[in-house]
Amino acid sequence: MDKAYNFLLNEVGIKYHDTVIVGVSGGPDSMALLHMLIELRKETDIFIICAHVNHNMREESAGEKVFVEKYCDNNQIIFESMKIKEYGDDNFHNEARSKRYIYFDKIVKKYGAKYLITAHHGDDLIETILMRIVRGSTFKGYAGFSKVLDMSDYKILRPLIHVTKDEILQYNKDNNIKYVTDASNKKDKYTRNRYRKYVLPFFKKEAPNVHEKFLKYSETLFAYNDYIDKQMYNIINDVYAQNILNIERFMELDKVLQIKIINYILEGIYHDDLMLIHDSHIDLIYKLINSSKPNSYIHLPNNVKFIKSYNNLSYIKEDEEINEYEIELTSYINLPNGMNLEVVDKCDWTNNFVCRLNSNEIKLPLFVRNKRIGDRMEIKGMLGRKKLKDIFIDEKISGHERQTWPVVLDASEKIVWLPGLKKTKFDKSLDENYDIIIKYY
Which domains does the chain have, with CATH numbers? Predict the structure, then answer.
């Protein structure tokens, strides 16, 4: 923890009477951070404001707010809190993070603070980098998160990036720091938890100081990204203006700059929803730009549509009401809902996200379209046919999602699969005869 303390005092240079906002959940990481700032206050007489967010997802949340508030009261710290009342249909973690940082920004401005300090630590950085490598990301995204983020009128600091979870727990033990525990952090259904439980122990066994290696990796990527950014900003106005990309000028650039410009465009569109974008989406845009077709388009998440029209590439955010679509399924389709359908040679999945067909039992070619009024399908293992409308209701699929949900049919218009939800009698198990495999992801 000495590295974290020295980072704040010497590297950042927090000064006498500076005002800092610290995000505190009540867990071991943020309570250790808050205690460290209290120690720093003895040396610098800083003003500490604690910002607590009740995510309102667990029964314990109300008690955690009381716990943090009481701790602040006992240590002469101003306490601010907010409760998230409801969530939309987005990914919970992504939406919660967005709401949390909007709130933090509000508190920073309320007190005119110079710094917002969060409790992200070295293990968090390893997990973030590994998850983004596996799922795909942008060049900047692969770097994880930085220990200093300049927000123009204040800075976000992550001093615990220098230390591990074990060091934090030991610090709490040595200083008799009480904290609350979130049971959901142990559940395997969350991706980050699986990396934390099964992947990190292997890395730490191979190299106990592996967090320092990942921090160096992260800093190197950020440095390279900053350099590429400077090169891009020198030419961006000649290539991309008024939300229109000049393809001819774009094609004259080195591929590294081309990909960087695509990332720049996506960052401008998605902002806090950038986690919805994978490297596969970047590849789709790149292929669209390089397509020999003079007019074409692709769909990305959140109803974003990229359109190529001769020498220009532009995008629109489509209205909530989606037009009907029907596409022949040959090898790969990027769907209007941002998902993909792909015919593959091999797949060991057995869930509703894969379908195996015998071409002798259906009429080719296959098509994919959105639902039509009166659509019915024969569900595998059930007698009779069921309305798609009823399936969507049973599966709690929102009205908006239903508009673009893919339906796979053969040439005789028989529904052979409702990807991600239900299979039909045409689906084959691994030990049956099939010659077509389709993945939905």
Answer: 2-218 (3.40.50.620), 242-317 (3.30.465.60), 326-440 (3.50.40.10)
